[in-house]
Amino acid sequence: MSVALLGLGSNLGDRAANLQAAIDLLAARGAPAVRLSGVWETPPVPADQPRYLNAAAAVATALAPQALLAAAKEVERLLGRRPAERWGPRPIDVDLLFMGRIEMSGEALTLPHARVAERAFVLLPLAEAADGPLPVLGRSAAELLAGVDARGCERTGLRLRLP
What we know:
By secondary structure, the protein is an alpha+beta fold. It has one domain (about 1-160): 7,8-Dihydro-6-hydroxymethylpterin-pyrophosphokinase HPPK (Alpha-Beta Plaits, 2-Layer Sandwich). Helix content is about 25%, strand content about 30%. It has helices at about 15-30, 65-80, 120-130, 140-145; strands at about 1-10, 35, 40, 50-60, 95-100, 105, 110, 155-160. Strands 1, 2, 3, 4, 5 and 8 form a 6-stranded antiparallel beta sheet that branches. The radius of gyration is 14 Å and the shape is globular. The two termini are about 20 Å apart.
């Protein structure tokens, strides 16, 4: 059993319900959350779209990294995400950020996620869902936050529930 760290985001439809549905659907596919962050509202990148709700989840799974990625993509499809412009608006985005101490780089999957240390919308929730130093990077999300711009990011007070 491995612990994987996932980033979740939604900026279309009922954003909070989309995040919770993703957590529930991932659990049904062999990746139940064992720890969840609070929900953060963050500015979109690029800026010409609705604001995001973001969260992070630590999931326990026996799935291999590629199988977990496939499960995440299936959840996105089930919740209405369709192929569209890169970084465009979406009902749900599920990113595999870390999977234990695995390091890999490929066309479909890079672990740790290539830009995890550069994005406040990932690091803020990750600081709540991850325990201690991040795998491979050796620094906590809170430490990495010191080097990024988190203006416009706000904790909402919304809470997701464990499956």
